[in-house]
Design goal:
271 residues; alpha/beta; eight-stranded parallel sheet; 10 helices; 37% helix; 13% strand; binds zinc ion
Length: 271
């Protein structure tokens, strides 16, 4: 099945995307790629700007002026391109409370909330710059804490979709394969998703950040989600134009397990 939707596209407002990720360029490119509907989003809070405050646990609610800027751009440009646009936000869950709450409550005008766990539980670091001297026991404890945490995030009624589930834990070596116990753990998470109507991302960026031998079993998680009735949200996680709507690994999974249109998450377009 061809995936005509991409519900995870970043803009220049992330501060770490390509300079070409301007809203009209994104809409134009998505239209040319034949996408029917996309979600344009940004991080909340801004990761680099606010990481110290999050690590130091000095604030639990961050302002997100970038939402307003994106919204103004979308309002201005969206009619000029043949693609439907959803105003989204990739919002970090609070790594200090780990109760499933988000680090931003001001979600006015946002139609789609995608929750992520970029901040590692119990360690003042991001998954992409893990300190070197963490003992194995610490990594295992982090995984257990993350699992409890992500289940709580999935149960938060404000959350529509889980962003790239498992990415951070696999990247830091806390998940070495998506098989055996990890598969059982994800089955537990999927039950929470089902109960709370939270969708599960099939995020192409996993294939770029996680070695293929670690990622091999991920297809079974997506199949389990589908079998259970948890909706799958196709996501490129594009930070540059050329990756918008490109689903190589994700498309292979979709084809192998015969993912149908009815298995895909579709955001409500209302306010
Ligand atoms: Zn993310
Ligand atoms: Zn993202």
């Amino acid at each position: 099945m061809h995936l005509f939707y991409d519900y995870h596209i970043h803009t220049v407002f992330s501060g770490h995307s390509g300079p070409e990720m301007l809203v009209p360029a994104i809409l134009d490119h998505a239209g040319r790629r034949g996408l029917r509907r996309i979600a344009v989003l940004e991080h909340a809070p801004e990761l680099n700007r606010h990481c110290r405050a999050v690590f130091a646990n000095t604030a639990s609610d961050f302002p997100c002026p970038q939402f307003q800027m994106i919204r103004e751009q979308l309002d201005y440009w969206h009619r000029q391109f043949p693609v439907e646009v959803v105003r989204a936000a990739e919002v970090d869950a609070n790594p200090n409370l780990r109760d499933g709450s988000l680090l931003t409550t001001d979600l006015g005008g946002i139609q789609l909330v995608i929750a992520s766990t970029h901040f590692l539980p119990g360690i003042p670091a991001f998954w992409y710059n893990l300190p070197e001297n963490i003992p194995t026991a610490g990594i295992e404890r982090m995984y257990d804490e993350w699992l409890d945490w992500i289940c709580r995030v999935a149960a938060n009624p404000k959350v529509d979709v889980l962003a790239h589930p498992g990415l951070e834990m696999a990247a830091v070596g806390a998940i070495r394969s998506f098989e055996g116990k990890v598969l059982d753990d994800f089955a537990r998470l999927l039950k929470v998703c089902l109960e709370h109507d939270t969708a599960f991302e099939l995020n192409e960026s996993l294939a770029k950040k996680i070695p293929p031998e670690v990622l091999r079993g991920y297809i079974d998680i997506i199949a389990a989600a589908r079998d259970l009735g948890v909706k799958i949200s196709p996501a490129s996680d594009a930070h540059d134009l050329k990756t918008i709507g490109v689903f190589t690994w994700a498309g292979e999974i979709a084809a192998k397990i015969n993912l149908g249109e009815e298995d895909l998450f579709q955001p409500l377009m209302a306010e």
